[in-house]
Amino acid sequence: MAKEPDPITLAIAASQSPRPPSPELEARERLREKHQQAIARLWTKPSACPICGTDRWNVADTVDMPLRDVAPDLAWAIANVKQAYVYVPVGCTNCGYTILFHAGTLDARFNEGYPGRTG
Questions:
Q1: For 77-109, how does the pLDDT look when each residue is reduced to its tens digit (9 = 90+)?
Q2: This prediction's pTM
Q3: SS3 letters for the chain?
Q4: Cα 107 from Cα 90, distance rounded (Å)
Q5: CA–CA separation, 62 vs 34, rounded Å?
Q6: Would you say 89 and 99 are in contact if contact means Cβ atoms under 8 Å apart?
Q7: Residues 55, 43: Cα–Cα separation, whole Å
Q8: What does the longest C-alpha to C-alpha distance in the chain come to?
Q9: What confidence tier does 34 reach under pLDDT thresholds 50, 70, 90?
């Protein structure tokens, strides 16, 4: 009788099997590429990580950082729409140090065709 694979082996195999791209994943990839282009044009300083010194960075998906409610009135806080800042994390792939770029600013610079550095 053949031994059945353990759940971890099955999970790894499932994660490595090709999946058809979803519209959400494709949209995220396009947005990441757009932000990466804007950051590349704007980043004029040396690209060494200030923590570990490597220059390997990864542009991640946008993240929302919700504003914290500070009103003492719970009814007011519940009735109001939550607000958030939207950032693009850029992380060092060696140590994890992360820089946050405001997504709205990157979008504006991308749409303006901001030249940034020329080299």
A1: 666 777 889 999 999 999 999 999 999 999 998
A2: 0.69
A3: CCCCCCHHHHHHHHHHCCCCCCHHHHHHHHHHHHHHHHHHHHCCCCCCCCCCCCCCEEECCCEEEECCCCCCCHHHHHHCCCCEEEEEEEEECCCCCEEEEEHHHHHHHHHHCCCCCCC
A4: 15
A5: 12
A6: yes
A7: 12
A8: 66
A9: very high
